[in-house]
Design goal:
Distance between the termini: 45 Å
Largest sheet: 5 strands, parallel
Structural class: alpha/beta
Mean pLDDT: 92
Radius of gyration: 24 Å
Number of helices: 18
Length: 514
């Protein structure tokens, strides 16, 4: 074992020289939040009562006919104003009936996500219209090839657990073409669980058929669903989106897992107070999960309150502010109050590049969501400019950031070995340092997470290496990965069948080294 002050040299997974070779990532489904509790019991009771009253007494505007039928058949009421009311008995029945755990599967061992309790998983997202070009650094419209490249990169980043569509492929001619090709490109690029969206029941059916073909059958997919939908069923304040409700009902009936999400903006489409914003958001989210549950009592539903903060000086989103971090934590805590699998957004930095501002804004919001115990944190990596752009070098940097955050969720061991009284006595009377202890070496390999691109060298070694910035290392890592990592997650015969059945626009030449 090295003596005090000595340098360790080894190879990281990323291939750069660094310190040690510890484990690559904290193991999935053993990461549990909950140390942070932003609400006491009285506050939870008050927000819950307000949300229940909003649903029962104010209700939801513009309910589609199918939604009215489902809710009124279960005891709901359509008011004289045309607002759909959800009585408390219906709310109670739904909350008692909705499943308490949702499994979102990957297509390699060890990639399944178990959403339950306060287990924490982090991933991508954003549906950004722009891409930060990996070579020039310029902002440009995002394409289907960008989406595929993002999936390939995320596929090898161990601390990013799932791949939610990060960009809109703006080179697609229609919504249906966009949504089919988005699902295909994501599933071709990564074995991690994939999250996409759909704008019509037709798109839901097409995406389901694509998944059933890859899985081998509809039943095989439903046994191990490797794709889920994100659905924004509400236009705040308190108005259903007819198109999204149709998507939600179709997804429930076909057995696709779904996030039922609500995006209110504090001070704009929801009250300017955190308590009022969360109460409205919880009510709107409950309305969606109740409808999905009525459409299929076995539906796999993820409760997705996503209240966002508006910068009241400009009207723009302020996703990296302290108010956003607190607002998200409060919404997550309310989701836990209902015991439902849940998801939220964190990591929506306002910075335009992966710089210090991006680092502190993402770290704050993602940490608070994780420490509160959100089951599924989307937009946690790669997004910039208030979700308006995606950066591949940011993925690599954020992978290191997420590893640090996830490591902070680890439980504290308190057995005799961990308390180390005997070892302390031996060292204090002997060598005077713990570097020679067998357990120190063993735990160096098992207990510590070593970064891929974060720099831990001495100032002297760093200067000798040319004083590199983390962005230089991240860019090089992303470029190297995209030049070499071309996974084959859709077998050739199935791929040929999909290309016959669907208008797949990702060229095969993009899916192999040039």
């Amino acid at each position: 074992m090295a003596q005090p002050g000595a340098r360790r040299r080894g190879r990281r997974r990323g291939g750069d020289e660094g310190e040690g070779t510890g484990r690559a990532a904290a193991p999935l489904n053993r990461l549990t939040g909950g140390r942070l509790n932003p609400l006491d019991a009285d506050a939870i009771t008050q927000i819950d009562a307000a949300a229940r009253a909003i649903l029962a007494e104010i209700g939801m505007a513009a309910p589609p006919e199918d939604v009215v039928g489902l809710v009124t058949a279960a005891g709901g009421d359509l008011s004289s104003e045309g607002r759909l009311l959800f009585p408390r008995d219906l709310q109670d029945s739904a909350l008692a009936g909705i499943g308490r755990e949702v499994a979102l599967c990957g297509r390699r061992p060890g990639l399944d996500l178990h959403l339950a309790g306060r287990k924490v998983h982090v991933g991508t997202g954003g549906a950004s219209p722009q891409m930060v070009d990996l070579h020039s650094g310029a902002y440009r419209p995002s394409t289907l090839a960008d989406l595929y490249d993002a999936a390939r990169l995320v596929d090898v980043l161990d601390n990013i657990h799932f791949f939610a569509r990060p960009v809109v492929a703006r080179d697609m001619d229609s919504d249906l073409l966009l949504e089919i090709n988005t699902a295909y490109a994501a599933l071709a690029g990564t074995a991690k669980h994939v999250v996409v969206s759909a704008s019509s029941p037709e798109a839901v059916r097409a995406i389901a058929d694509l998944c059933f073909a890859i899985a081998g059958s509809a039943d095989a997919f439903r046994d191990r669903p490797f794709l889920s939908l994100t659905i924004n069923h509400v236009v705040p304040p308190l108005r259903f989106s007819a198109e999204a409700c149709d998507v939600m009902i179709e997804a429930a009936r076909l057995g696709l897992p779904m996030q039922c999400n609500t995006f209110g903006q504090l001070g704009a489409s929801s009250p300017v107070t955190i308590a009022g914003c969360v109460a409205q958001t919880i009510a709107e989210t409950l309305a969606g999960v109740i409808v999905a549950w009525l459409a299929n009592p076995q539906a796999r539903i993820i409760f997705g309150p996503r209240p966002m903060v508006t910068d009241l000086r400009t009207g723009g989103m302020a996703g990296g502010c302290g108010e956003q971090a607190l607002l998200t934590a409060v919404a997550v805590r309310m989701a836990q109050h209902y015991g439902l699998p849940n998801s939220t957004i964190a990591g929506a930095t306002d910075s335009k590049v992966p710089d210090g501002q991006a680092g502190f804004e993402k770290s704050l919001t993602v940490s608070m969501a994780a420490q509160t115990g959100s089951n599924m944190i989307t937009q946690a990596a790669g997004a910039l400019a208030g979700l308006m752009a995606c950066s591949l070098e940011a993925y690599v940097i954020d992978n290191d950031m997420l590893g640090v955050i996830l490591r902070s969720l680890a439980p504290i061991e308190l057995d005799d070995t961990a308390l180390s009284v005997a070892a302390i006595a031996e060292v204090a009377r002997g060598e005077g340092h713990f570097l020679g202890q067998p357990e120190t070496y063993q735990r160096m390999q098992s207990d510590f997470l070593y970064p891929d691109v974060s720099d831990r060298r001495s100032p002297e070694d760093w200067a000798i290496a040319g004083s590199p910035d983390i962005r230089n290392a991240a860019k090089a890592r992303a470029q190297d990965t995209l030049a070499t990592h071309y996974p084959n997650y859709i077998p050739e015969d199935i791929d040929a069948d999909l290309r016959d059945r669907f208008d797949i626009r990702l060229p095969k030449t993009c899916m192999r080294p040039s």
